[in-house]
Amino acid sequence: MRVPMVTVKRMPEPGDRRSQRSFLREIREFVKGSHRPRLIIDLSRVEQLSPESIDLLLECVDHAERGDCAVSVAGASDQAAVILELTQMTSVLDMFPSVAEATQGCQVHDFESTTPLHAA
Amino acid sequence: MEMGALVVTAGGEAGSPAHLPSLWAPSWPVLGETVLERWIKRVQSLGVGLVSVVNRDSEHANRVRTMVEWAREGVEQILLIVLGSYAEIDLLDLVRFHYEGQNRVTRVFDEEGPLGISLLDRGCVLTNREKADQDQCLPSSRYDFLGYVFRLSSTVSYRRLVEDALQGRCEIQPAGVQRRANVWVDETARVHPSAQIEAPCYIGAGVEIGAGVVIRRSSSVERNCRIDLGTTLDRASILPNTYVAPGLHVRESVIDESRLEDLARGVAVDLGAAGLSTRVGTRPRRPFRQRSSSPAPASLFGG
Questions:
Q1: CA nearest to A81 within chain B
Q2: Which long-range contacts (CB under 8 A, 24 or more apart) does B131-136 make?
Q3: CATH annotation of A5-119
Q4: FRET label pair with A3: which of A120, B214, B258, B276, CA 20 to 30 Å apart?
């Protein structure tokens, strides 16, 4: 039986514009180079979501939809989860309590290690 | 026979750390009027003209002095209300009980204990000057109240009282005009024609409800709030002078200016940092980008 594959990508720190730009570029390339990928954005290091973080997630979903990619978020703090629900991001993103739960039963790839494969 | 009423409020504003659930602040209105205002009305309906409100944090000596001065001036009975609950007590019955029993101090209890409401005789105040506002120190009679009582403790209890009032489970009457069954809207509120208002709900004075807003399941919007385009309020209360950004889904929460308390999760979030809510009149920080283009809010609140 084929084990579904998921890729985990960590959300950049709020306020770090450079990392945010590179995050989006990497997502775009990842979606382009994959066939119906499943992506999990790890929010465990994000205490509270800023407007920039919400914008970033929206852009991420936008790119993912174009590439038939399923995007989920995992590990959101209570505060971040409240913002995700409030802004209705949960209507376009599945939300898991932790990365472990989001990847249960799946073959997990670290985003950085898979990027060169897809880019090749 | 003259009576005076001294109402001791619970103190200042709700002051919890930003991320923790808060206590009920006495300044929070419940469908247009604070619990304090409702108590004062209840007392005045008894014909009591002498009403004084003091803060619990203020000098103990000042409170005692007020009571002693009243007693010296001939006030026969003093109703002492330490504001910690909303209780639909028949004050006339309490006075009758006190008078018929020739009690010096009568304290009101419910199933959970004392409610902080006492009736004291003039003589008792004059002979126990130091302890006059600490009725638990004085020998007293017990008046058991079995009616509607709500202790003012947390934001969760605030929401429950709002729901009880909107669903007719208590005597609280919303301050607005009943536009249709169980929908109260103040005459000065402006509601966009495309907004969906589902009963029961309350919209207070000076409120502006934008296009496409949905208000449902016992939600309340207190005075001078502005709810922007397409936002949904679902079992939520918005406290006075709060602006709520467009496109949000506010569920089982209380928002006080920039502070949201999610009652289901038991956490508080600062929405000001995310530009999602703020005090009316202050410029919100850059709100998050909308997924669909929307007309400028200002044009929709024009009149």
A1: B265
A2: B132/B64, B132/B67, B132/B68, B133/B6, B133/B8, B133/B60, B133/B63, B133/B64, B133/B67, B133/B80, B135/B80, B135/B105, B135/B107, B136/B107
A3: 3.30.750.24
A4: A120
CB contact (8 A) between residue B248 and residue A83: no
pLDDT in tens, B84-94: 899 999 999 99
Rounded to the nearest 10 degrees, the angle between the axes of helix A111-119 and helix A17-32 is 50
Contact status, residue B78 vs residue B5, Cβ threshold 8 Å: yes
> What does the domain layout of chain B look like in residue ranges?
3-151, 174-288
Spans of chain A, pLDDT less than 50: 114-120
CATH class of B3-151: alpha beta
Residue B251: list chain A partners with CB under 8 A: 85
- What CA–CA distances, in Å, run from A48 to A79, A87, B78, B273? 6, 13, 51, 9
Option in A55, A79, A82 nearest B288 (CB): A55
| ipTM of the complex, rounded to two decimals | 0.81
Is the Cβ–Cβ distance between B207 and B227 less than 8 Å?
yes
List, for residues A86-117, the tens digit of each pLDDT value: 999 999 899 999 988 988 877 777 665 544 33
- In one-letter notation, the amino acid at residue A98 is S
- A51 CB near a chain B CB, below 8 Å? yes
- Whole-structure pTM value: 0.85
pLDDT of the residue at A4: 66
Whether the CB of A15 is below 8 Å from some CB of chain B: the reply is: no
Q: Does B291 touch chain A (CB under 8 A)?
A: yes
Please check whether residue A119 touches B, CB under 8 A.
no
Residues of chain A contacting B250 with CB distance shorter than 8 Å: 86
Give, as one character, the DSSP assignment of residue B219: E
**pLDDT score recorded for residue B59:** 66
Given a cut of 70, whether residue B130 has pLDDT beyond it is no
The confidence band for B64, taking pLDDT boundaries of 50, 70 and 90, is confident
Give the per-residue pLDDT at B213: 98
